Amino acid sequence: VHAETLEDRCQVAAYACQRRTPLAHKNQLLTEALETVAEEALFRGSEGRGLAFSRAASVLKSFPWTVRSVKDLSSLPGIGEHSRKIIQEVLEDGASAEVENVRQSERYQTMKNFKKIFGVGVKTAGRWYQEGLRTISDLQAHHAKLNSAQQVGLLHYRDLNSPVKRSEAEAIVQVVQKAVDQFLPGASVILTGGFRRGKQTGHDVDLLITHPTEGQEMGLLSKVVSWLDSQGFMLYHSTHRNSFQPLEDEELSVSATTMDRFDRCFSIFCLSSMTEEPGCELKGSGGAHHRKAVRVDLVVTPYSQFSFALLGWTGSKNFERDLRRFSKYEKKMVLNSHTLYHTEKKIFLSAASEEEIFQHLGLDFISPEQRNA
Ligand code: CTP
Ligand code: MN
Ligand code: MN
Ligand code: MN
């Protein structure tokens, strides 16, 4: 055992799942610049470039000090030439000309606004831009171009782009728990995603539903969604049936995709609340009725897969991506939100907790609050 040197302590691990990344970090200006060019690359369909910038930003988020000079970067992995140049410009001039050009560009701004519509991805936003559409009003004038999800998205554009508060997320957990209790007593509703990582606001609410008796959860989602719908809680829902079945090895090794196969529902909730301040809308009524549209993802998981689902749905996206890369390249294992498979031993490794999954992978446990990569 050698004495820890300053250099050792500055060493930053290559995979995000080996690093602790808190929500609040010390290099905001740099990570915002890199994330802007990462987003721009994705808008152009350059996934590789987007990933490279996004990884560089993620590394800086885990760095315990503020980067003052490009010399500080020598101890950091995964920061390429282009990222380095942008960092240098920000450090020396307070801003990067390249990043500022992106921020000012009509294409970037338009794509960003279109992508904020529920149901709109890079491909659709890019096509609309090519067709000459520029504003939300342009889309309203070409309503026929929108599918049903996008039409609901446009209708609730403002609500869906205002941050979801933790209190709102907790109110939705209560509503869903009440629905679940009617059909399957003993089932739990667990808040995951960004809120589990300690975020105080989010773009949506991610909920996992499970029951300690394997198999009891089957068929639960459609009953819950129907009930929520009948009670007026659902403005939109799109349900996908479970298609998970154990795969052959060969198929497995290529199936470490981000999409899992649980019973799941992408929905928009209508959250009602009584405000404390009287007379907002109805004078003298002692309170006003407020409604807000909130994106909610509901996922039902069998108990034996719950730990994998919890790990997979807690994020962040960079953390998840590196967990899968680390598993594949460093451990010859395939990790997804259902299982962990050892490709050489040809066995599935079970886990009753997230901690056990980290142990199987030979990783130190990283708490959800430290997964903000
Ligand atoms: N996820 C997934 N499959 C999807 C969508 C999301 O497995 N089709 C996972 C993502 O990998 C992520 C988690 O669910 O780890 C949460 O995704 P998302 O809600 O998009 O992001 P958050 O981290 O929760 O951020 P925000 O607070 O903005 O919602
Ligand atoms: Mn989320
Ligand atoms: Mn989500
Ligand atoms: Mn319906």
Task: Name a few traits of the molecule.
alpha+beta; 373 residues; binds manganese (II) ion; 3-stranded antiparallel β-sheet; 14% strand; globular; binds cytidine-5'-triphosphate; 5-stranded mixed β-sheet
Summarize the structure.
This protein has 373 residues and is an alpha+beta fold.
Describe the structure.
44% of the residues lie in helices and 14% in strands. Helix 2 crosses helix 4 (81-93), helix 2 (28-43) packs across helix 5 (97-104) and helix 11 crosses helix 13. The chain contains 17 helices and 10 strands. The chain has helices at residues 6-10, 28-43, 47-62, 81-93, 97-104, 106-115, 122-130, 136-141, 148-155, 157-160, 166-183, 193-196, 220-230, 249-253, 306-314, 317-331, 354-360, and strands at 164-165, 188-191, 201-202, 205-210, 234-240, 263-274, 289-300, 333-335, 340-342, 347-348. With 373 residues, it is of the alpha+beta class. The two termini are 30 Å apart. The strands form 3 sheets. A 5-stranded mixed β-sheet has the order 2-4-7-6-5, sandwiched between helices. It has a 3-stranded antiparallel β-sheet with strand order 8-9-10. A two-stranded antiparallel sheet has the order 1-3. A hairpin with a 4-residue loop joins strand 8 and strand 9. 35% of the residues are buried. The structure holds cytidine-5'-triphosphate and manganese (II) ion (MN) (3 copies). Residues 193, 204, 206, 297 line the site of one manganese (II) ion (MN). One manganese (II) ion binds at residues 193, 204, 206, 297.
